[in-house]
Amino acid sequence: METKSNLKSSMMAGNQSAIYQVESFLEEFYLFRRNVLNGKTEFFCIKPKEEKELEKKEETLKEESPEEKNWKVLTAEAFNSIVR
Fold this sequence. Notes:
55% of the residues lie in helices and 14% in strands. The protein is built from 3 helices and 3 strands, in the order αββαβα. The protein has helices at 2-29, 49-58, 76-83, and strands spanning 30-34, 41-45, 72-73. GO terms for molecular function: helicase activity.
């Protein structure tokens, strides 16, 4: 009986670790927002640091607001490509 509860708790700890890794990945590479006008969830892919540094050298320093970014609707296909 005791070994079953230990097994369950270790499985839950493993699941929490996996969830933390997924959340960390999403926070590092994607921005998400809810469009209140159409009720859809939208996402924006954040570029890796290396690409950002190259762009800063090539372009003038201009701050982009979230409205100027190319937000895409989070469809089932887009979600599948992010998760896998």
